[in-house]
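Intended use. Records like the one below are meant for learning the mapping from a protein sequence to its folded structure. Do not use them to infer anything beyond what is encoded.
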Amino acid sequence: LKALLDQAEAIREQIAALTFEGPLAQRQITASMGIALRETGETVDDLIARADQALYDAKRSRRNRTCAARV
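Structure written out for the chain above:
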């Protein structure tokens, strides 16, 4: 899970570092991410639900953040 969290954080940081020209020059784009690893015997629907909950946790706590799903 740590490696996945590190990869998601690197992507999030790359998104936040993007710069634009023209009408978007003064804008910053950020991303909130929720990640989860599939547990033994877990359905895909349950995996997606846990990742979705982690995303909402990231958005609630502060935007531009990555959160891992609880097991």
